[in-house]
Amino acid sequence: MVGALRGAVWAAVVSAVMAWPATAQNLPPPEGEMARLIWSTLLALDHANLTGNYTVLRDLADSGFRDANDAAQLAFIFEPTRDLPLGQAVLYPPRLSETPVIGEDGLLRLTGRIPMRPRAVLFDMLFARRDAGWRIFGLSVAAEEPVPEESGGPEEGVAGQ
User: Which terminus, N or C, of the chain has the lesser number of Cβ atoms within 10 Å?
Assistant: First the structure.
């Protein structure tokens, strides 16, 4: 009986999702929600950097991210970002450099910068829609600094699946 009921509920959920217009499923969240995703991700990384404990950052992520990155790997990957004052990011509105899109893979991509002083923070984030929200699927954070021509670019931390 429970199995039949579970199957009926699952069928109803699938039917409701299938009936939802495809365009609504592919629209990025509202601007305020995207800002919240960016800020909360940067704060999670800031807390991980401050404490040296990357398990919460990992636990906030999608299963693909968690499978690809253990806490020790995340500590190594994001070591170059430890001197960035990411906790101050919430004081500045994120500026997207690309139009937010949900790709054919269902991932929301947010790319841009937080115009902090003296160094802006660059970010490239992927989120997977899970349950009623979004989970981190990929994350890249770097400091924007004037780059001498002979240099290879900004310091960077990148993690993903």
Answer: N
Q: Smallest Cα–Cα separation from 36: which of 159, 143, 134?
A: 134
Residue 107 lies in a domain: yes
Its domain, for residue 93, covers 29-160
- Tokens representing 61 are 């992520």
Q: Letter for the amino acid at 50?
A: L
Express each pLDDT in 109-122 by its tens digit.
999 999 998 889 99
Q: How many domains does the chain have?
A: 1
- Predicted TM-score (pTM) of the model is 0.75
Residue 23 belongs to some domain of the structure: no
Among residues 42, 64, 1, 48, which one has the least CA distance to residue 142?
42
